[in-house]
Structure prediction request, 414 residues.
Amino acid sequence: MRYFLAILTFLTLIACNNKEQEKQKPQKATVKKEPIVKEFGFTLNDFKVVRDTIQRGDTFGHILGEEGFDAGQIHTITQQIKDTFDLRDIRVGKPYTLLKDKKTPNGLKAFIYQPDNLSYYVIDLRDSIPHVKKTVKPITVKRRIITAEIEGSLAETLNKAGAGPALAHELSEIYAWSIDFFKIQKGDKFAVAVNERFIDDTIYAGIANIESSYFEYKGKKIYAFPFKQNENDKKASFYDEEGKVLKNMFLKAPLKFSHITSRFSPKRFHPVQMRWKAHNGTDYAAPHGTPIMTTASGVVERTGYTSGNGNFVKVKHNRTYSTQYLHMSKILVRQGQRVSQGDVIGRVGSTGLATGPHVCYRFWKNGVQVDALRQKLPNSEPMDAKHKPRFIAYMTPLKKELDSISNIKFNPKN
Prediction:
């Protein structure tokens, strides 16, 4: 037994000694490899990289001068590249990148200019004769369907669904004649099939087109399908599932996004004059400077200023209808000018008898002021009957797709 304990003690001492020796051995340092970064056709690890934006007063020659090029060299380079790169296109605020030699001071090897998100120019200075190459980044189009219930505004709802503000703008344009977006409520529903552009498959670059959509508003689904009646039509018009055009003669409101603060009324307490009087218009509150649009095409009948109306514009649309826009901070049209539906004719202000920035929208029918929100207004030109079968064939599968996704989203039991 004593012999066994002695051997055990001896082995324990050897193990401890080995551990101590291991601790005393110098540890090898772990060297992390620098990740390889490639951009603009270069391996950026090989250069000193400087990124900046064009400032006021910057020119290509000025930038070369700061990098150590003399006047003669700058003249030679600009002459050599002038036929492939217009140096006048360099704009303030646009990004550029300098690739420099890591060892040589002022050793500029390449100048990269990015005029937009989709393209860039490389001016390669590594050879005795510089050369220019323009590269357009690859664009991919991805299709997706967004379906949601309104929470707050349309823009807020789409933002929660991962869509950019451009889609809210597109939908507001499509439904501008059939939906008053100032009145949409929590629980209203919509679905849209949209094709979106992406740069290098990852960077969002806007909307390619909307294939189909519906908006459930006041308990009714309003469908929208783009369709060109003729092959040479530059732009598609939107129609419902029966082929009826969505576009009306009049927009629902003179502003894209705002809220109604006062309606047409035979008797309203005036907040400035402090007395009861008729209010022959609809007030839309919006931030100072918000664009005011003419709700229909026509001719500017009158512009001017009065102590009550402030700066105003009146547009005559035809023998039946006229509209007027009051309290502008700025008038952007002149008397006698032709305007098209949606044209910006002024900016929201608070001139005249107004307590805050808004536009008072007035509406005349046959020379009498009426409530614009209660009018049943005429549609635009309907679809030609000969195109109806082609439209129905095109629309039917798109509608079926929207309806099936709608049922899954909002009616889980189905």
Q: What stands out?
A: Helices lie at 2-24, 60-66, 71-81, 154-160, 165-174, 388-410. The first strand starts at residue 38 and ends at 39. The radius of gyration is 33 Å.
